[in-house]
Structure formats: structure tokens, C-alpha cells
Amino acid sequence: MINRYKRFKLVPEVFWLDAGWYIHANEVEKEKNWANTVGNWEVDQDRFPGGLKPISDEVHKAGAKFMVWFEPERVVKDSKWGRERKEWMLQADGTGDYLFDLGNREALQWLCNYIGDFMEANGIDYYRQDFNMRIDNFWRENDAPGRMGIREIRHIEGLYAFWDYLLRRFPEAIIDNCASGGRRLDFETMKRSAPMWRTDYTYGEPVGYQTHTYGLSLFLPLTGTGVQKSDRFTFRSSLGTSVIFNWKITDQSSSFTEMQRCFKEFMELRPYYYGEYYPLTSYEDMTADDIWMVYQLHRPSDETGIIVAFRREECTSDEITVRLSALQPGATYKLTDRDSAHSFYLTGEALRNGLTLKLEQPRSSLIYQYERLQ
Q1: Residue 278 CA, distance from chain mean position
Q2: DSSP state, 340?
């Protein structure tokens, strides 16, 4: 796991340019927007007269990386690609979009070269690929008789080949696998990418985000999600190896001080999310509003870790006892509450037998950090 994901281990800050940087996407009077203009993959010179290179230059001066959003598979019919590359498009009944046929080798090679050259010319470090369409009907309606499923196979093979090309051409690159939020979390995409926006589920709803972390951490630690509020319960629900901050800093209810506190906490806790993961509460009914959810993250390298606990809004019990893992029975551990700074000491054996966590109020959270003393 460490070797496979080594390119992600020391990722610096990333400046991310989202959808809508291309031509026609800003023509509001013509009812054009980011979604109905995909396929026009040229920089809008009215808004970016020098292209994206001046932006990437400034990003690099700040010591950060530059990532840009694309959605190359979905092609609006009246876009430039839709008109000029129609021979490479698959059609389906009842839709205003084409599907760029990644199973067509000529089309695939052209796409590889086009996106690769675009990234190089504009100083783009990281590539973000979205995917916002139903796709099975395109494959089914274009399969030859007796060849059901072959279009899907060839398309997905082409997708992996496209990503492999980008990673060969840009060895330090990262591919951010968005796909409408988590629609392509398979083992082959996991070998090539990381979903920095793992879900389009109700933005900012903390219980769902807690549940995503609980489940995905079992097999896919390198994920990210958004956070819209700075209260501890909501913010900590979004903790992981990456976090996308969606705060509206101009909103009167926003607190810049609280934002700074959240960012500091994320940076301090982030390394633990690359470590060993132990769920401490059951997966049964884990989406319910009347339960505790608790998990442990442990770093064998220095025998430290964290315990993250949530008492949800309708939970009537103010305490829960959990059994920690990965601790040495005869060792002594110092545990510190991040909120109160209160510390206490227990043996590994005692922590394995049961640690009682207490939260007076529903919809609250706690984080204990621990370290081995001897």
C-alpha cells in the first residue's frame, strides 16, 4: 500500500481550477454554463487572455501545485468536439450529449496527445477528471449483435490506458478521480488515482460524511470530501487524508478564527489517516442518527494514534465503552483530549479491555490523541 501510493504521501497545497474555464461556459445570456458547454476544451481568452500558464506560474511561485478540471467523455452535441470529432462519438436516444468513444484506438490516442499537450502548455501539475452522465445506454445501443458488453469493456480499457499515458508522461502527476463524486471507485482506478471529491451526497451533511469515512477507510484511505461549516461536529466528520474547504469567507456568520482552528487541526491529524485504521463501533445501523460512531487510527512507526468519536443528534446515551487495538498490553500510554487538553494515563492492557468515552451533549465529538511512554 505504501509503495502504490507513494506519490500521494507528501502532497503540497493544491490550487484547483474547477469547471467553467473553457470557451462559451460563461455566456449566461445564452443560457450557457459549465455543464452544457463541455467539449469546448479551449481556454476562454476573454477571462484568461494569457491562457492558464500565468495562473500556474503564480501557483508555482507560492510553492503549490496546479490542478484543472476536465470532463472529456461527455461531449455536448453542439460543442467544438461534437461538431469536429463526430466520427469518434457514440450516440444514444433521448440525450443531448455524445460519449467520446475511448474504445476507438485512434480517438484514444488523439485524446492522450491533446490533454497531455494542454497540460504541458499550461503548466498543469494535476489532472482532475469528472464524469456526469448515464453511460450504459450508449454502450448497449452501439453494441453489435451478439457482442453485448464489448463497448463497455473497450471503453473502460481505454480509460485506464488514457490515465496510464498521463502518469507516464507526467510522473509526478496526480489524477483526481471525481466522477460525480465516487462513481468510479474500483480497484483499477484506485491504482491510478485518488477521489479527492468522493461524494456528491448532500453537501455538508455530517452523518453521511462520517459513514463514508468509516467504510472507505477499510480499503481506500486516500479520499477527500468537502466541509462547509467550522463547528467541531461537522468539521471532524470530514477529516481524512484530504479536505476541501468550502467556506464562504464573505458570509457574516463565518468565523475566520474558527477556520484557522479547523485548518490547524486538519494539518496536525492528517498524518494519522495514512496509518492503520480500526473501527471501534459496529457497522450495523451506522447511518442512524441515534448512535455513537468511533474509530481509531494508529501509527506503528512511533506508537501514536488518535481516537475519533461522534455522539449523534438523537443518541440518548452520553457514554460508550470501546476496546482499542494495536497497543502493547504492558506499555503505558498518555491520552490527551484535544478540546480540554486534559491528559490521563492507562496501560495498553486497560485500553484493550475498554476505554469509556463521554460526551454530555448530543451532536458532539471528541478526539483523544495518545502516545506510548514506555
Answers
A1: 21
A2: T
